[in-house]
Design goal:
With 292 residues, the protein is of the alpha/beta class. Helices cover 43% and strands 12% of the residues. The strands form two sheets. The chain has a five-stranded parallel β-sheet with strand order 5-4-1-6-7, sandwiched between helices. Helix 2 packs across helix 5. The longest helix has 16 residues. The C terminus is likely disordered.
Length: 292
């Protein structure tokens, strides 16, 4: 996909309805040949809109006016380029635990959690957050600084209690240290303008995580995951989960990861859209067969 089309699609299909500021900025970038030429000097994986927009915000550049954004980015391109090359899009949304919890609570405990693509590891603390599903009574610690409101549809097995988690670890190519103010500021820069609730939730989740930082191992899942599984405590149900991993894997790497996890003595939760896992999608779309 050409860079201009990438930014146009980002504006029209991803941020529209979520961040009017970023929609305008991305459309402005899509029509700026000078800026597009600079972006095209980056490695393909580094041209993504989220990364560029976050880098400008992280550096204190203007992001609430598309014309000022474009001119500032061109003038400060060397600094922007260095930041883009040094950083990754590592959003860490604790809110994803609301969709993970029904599955986690249904497993036999106690649980040992391993998150692949953990970023700062905020999703490794699902047992420390409080949940409100629809109009049901809230579950989870009453004094938790993080309260997750979730609307459900269909037959969601909403839990009436949280599971016991006795061990937790994460894997990431470039872990984020929650005790590092600059690293946390980068996570904040990745949240789209206008998403104030997400920003408040991130800050609320970071505070307790700093008191008990998660163990996050630097490396690729293929190399690291088997040893982490072996090091989990005996008697615990080992759960491997991920929420935003598949978009960063090409098809061969995705197939290797799926084969690896299926070969390990773990429960596997893929909190991602089914199109990211073609083998799962194929089962979901197979026509029903009459019972024998």
């Amino acid at each position: 996909m050409e860079t201009a089309e990438w930014y146009r699609r980002f504006a029209e299909s991803e941020v529209r309805g979520h961040s009017a500021v970023y929609e305008a900025v991305a459309l402005g970038v899509a029509g700026d040949d000078t800026l597009l030429g600079l972006i095209d000097t980056l490695p393909p994986a580094k041209r993504q809109p989220n990364l560029l927009l976050a880098a400008v915000r992280f550096l204190g550049g203007p992001y609430d006016d598309e014309a000022r954004f474009r001119s500032w980015t061109v003038r400060n391109w060397d600094t922007v380029r260095a930041t883009v090359l040094a950083r990754r899009t590592q959003t860490n949304e604790a809110g994803r635990c609301a969709s993970l919890m029904p599955m986690l609570a249904a497993l036999p405990g106690p649980l040992a959690l391993i998150e692949v693509g953990a970023s700062a590891g905020l999703c490794l603390y699902p047992d420390r957050y409080r949940y409100r599903y629809d109009d049901r009574p809230a579950v989870g610690p009453a004094d938790s600084p993080v309260v997750l409101d979730c609307r459900t549809n269909g037959r969601v097995p909403v839990p009436d209690r949280l599971p016991e988690v006795v061990w937790r670890a994460g894997i990431d190519l470039d872990p984020v240290d929650v005790r590092d103010d600059e690293a946390v500021r980068w996570l904040e820069s990745l949240i789209w303008p206008g998403q104030d609730e997400r920003l408040a939730r991130l800050r609320s989740a970071v505070r307790p995580a700093r008191e008990d930082p998660p163990r996050i191992v630097r490396g690729d899942a293929e190399a690291v995951l088997p040893e982490l599984v072996r090091s989990a405590p005996a008697g615990a149900t080992v759960v491997v989960f991920h929420s935003a991993l598949m978009p960063y894997l090409d098809e061969p790497a995705r197939d290797r990861f799926v084969a690896l996890v299926r070969g390990l003595p773990v429960q596997w939760i893929s909190n991602e859209g089914s199109p990211r896992l073609p083998s799962v999608l194929a089962k979901l779309t197979e026509p029903s067969r009459p019972a024998a």
